[in-house]
Write a structure and sequence with these properties.
Layout (H helix, E strand, L loop, with lengths): L21 H26 L3 H4 L5 H12 L11 H18 L1 H20 L2 H7 L4 E4 L28 E6 L2 E7 L12 E9 L13 E7 L5 E3 L16 E9 L3 E3 L4 H35 L3 E2 L2 E2 L4 H30 L5 H26 L10 H10 L7 H19 L5
Parallel strand pairs: 1-4, 2-4
Antiparallel strand pairs: 2-3, 3-7, 4-5, 5-8, 6-7, 9-10
Helix pairs in contact: 1-3, 1-4, 4-5, 4-7, 4-8, 5-6, 5-7, 7-8, 7-9, 8-9, 9-10, 9-11
The chain binds flavin-adenine dinucleotide.
């Protein structure tokens, strides 16, 4: 007698994926174990701690970073790997870190920004300065949030000039003099040992070019030097395992060679750093969406209402099906933007931004619906889903507020159509 129903499909732990190599599967499963055994328990513990204790020298936050070092997935893991394969590897690793804890995943990613920039510069002095240190990326300031992500003068309000913000560099001879403060949102800001600054710069002829755009620079700054001080770690609703706070710079002087991008190459390097952050945010959203989905699936397979397991009621099956399709779509979009960004001859951060906004807004829909499936208990600290909702909320603003990112993408597409005739064939 032949089988009368189709076999269950082949699935990987990340869902409907086919064609993984043995190496990819081994790496994914190794990072998944780390996410389940180290990140989840530490993330939940940190989530409940007041921020004044959460990142103190002996806190679980540092246990996470010690264990992460041992895992050996830092910058360099992709060295020698072909670009498409590197994009895929990154997608598998970062999504699992997001599945474990999105706050800790961002701490790990932001922590690498200075050393990645140092590697890209090829300067040994900078690589040595960043090696083994926790980093941060300071790009936003109290008066320069979304404005810092605006790349074209036509996007500014008519008559306005580029926003210099509250933290800037002056290039004087062989020195860079830095003054002002970052926003309170800099990930790892209160504890980082080294920073990659992404700020406005005056090279001796003011902060603006003839079109009113600000000149910029990327500078690597060790944070134990004279003139640097910190704010208090933020108390916030989500991503509580991630320390965030201001960094103040009072006449901080570093040699000019610490700049990894200056006047002419800054626009392209700024764009690439931002695109890198956007792809990571898309993968992290992939992991969080799947984490919430798994919690909801397990719950509906336990909870009885309407005379049956929720999972056996057709309305639930519809809701779970619609969520599951989103979980897969988020994953595919994240991989698509990451691959395009790594292998295109001319990537663009506004496309990456569209991926960040899409993956994160769809992810929020999934996490919100997952909590809805829990009913009242989902709102309580007895179940982990409420933490995921709080974490998901902050990701709608992080690394660029979603509406603004779609707006930038819309600007790009209208220009591609008008000036490059894209879509007119
Ligand atoms: C969890 C988290 C982690 C972060 N990590 C970092 C980090 O590591 N480093 C760093 O430098 N920063 C970081 N940030 C800061 C983040 O990039 C900013 O919060 C974000 O870019 C938005 O800026 P803002 O908060 O100043 O909001 P604003 O820019 O003040 O925006 C407020 C509202 O105004 C709207 N708005 C703004 N401009 C326009 C416009 N031109 N037209 C119409 N509407 C507009 C926005 O859409 C938004 O709804 C982080 C933020 C979060 C939440």
């Amino acid at each position: 007698m032949g089988e009368t129903k189709p076999a269950w499909p082949y699935v990987e732990l990340s869902g409907f994926d086919a064609g993984f190599s043995e190496e990819e599967r081994t790496i994914q499963q190794g990072v998944h174990r780390f996410a389940a055994q180290v990140m989840r328990p530490l993330g939940r513990e940190l989530d409940r701690m007041p921020s004044e204790n959460a990142y103190a020298p002996n806190s679980p936050f540092w246990d996470f970073h010690r264990e992460l070092q041992k895992l050996g997935i830092g910058p360099g893991i992709e060295a020698g790997v072909e670009a498409r394969a590197a994009a895929r590897l990154e997608s598998l690793v970062v999504a699992e870190l997001g599945w474990g804890d999105v706050g800790l995943a961002v701490s790990a990613g932001a922590g690498e920004m200075p050393i990645r920039a140092a590697f890209a510069s090829g300067q040994k002095e900078l690589i040595d300065m960043c090696a083994g240190k926790l980093g941060c990326w300071a790009a936003t300031q109290p008066d320069r949030g979304s404005d810092g992500l605006l790349l074209y003068s036509q996007e500014r309000f008519p008559g306005s000039k580029g926003n210099v913000g509250n933290l800037y560099a002056k290039f004087i001879g062989e020195e860079i003099v830095i003054n002002g403060q970052s926003s309170a949102w800099v990930s790892n800001g209160t504890v980082a040992q080294v920073a990659l600054l992404d700020i406005a710069a005056d090279y001796g002829d003011g902060f603006h070019d003839e079109e009113g755009n600000t000149f910029g620079c990327n500078v690597i700054v060790p944070l134990d030097i004279r003139g640097v001080s910190r704010g208090k770690p933020l108390e916030k609703i989500g991503k509580r395992p991630l320390p965030q706070g201001e960094i103040y710079f009072d006449n901080v002087r570093v040699p000019r060679r610490f700049a990894v991008a200056t006047r002419d190459d800054y626009p392209s390097k700024h764009a690439m750093a931002w695109a890198h952050a956007g792809t990571a945010m898309s993968h992290i959203a992939t992991g969080l969406a799947r984490a919430a989905y798994e919690l909801a699936l397990s719950y509906v397979n336990q909870r009885v209402q309407g005379g049956a397991l929720l999972a056996d009621l057709q309305l639930t099956q519809y809701r779970v099906g619609a969520m599951g399709a989103r979980v897969e779509a988020i994953k595919v979009m994240a991989r698509h933007v990451a691959e395009y960004t790594k292998i295109s001859p001319q990537p663009h951060p506004y496309f990456t931004a569209s991926g960040k906004a899409y993956c994160n807004s769809e992810m929020f829909t999934v996490v919100n619906e997952a909590l809805q499936l829990f009913g009242g208990v989902g709102l309580t600290a007895a179940y982990p889903i409420e933490k995921l909702l709080r974490d998901a909320r902050s990701m709608q603003i992080e690394d660029g507020e979603n509406h603004l990112l779609f707006m930038h993408y819309g600007f790009l597409m209208t220009r591609l159509n008008r000036f490059e005739a894209w879509g007119q064939s």
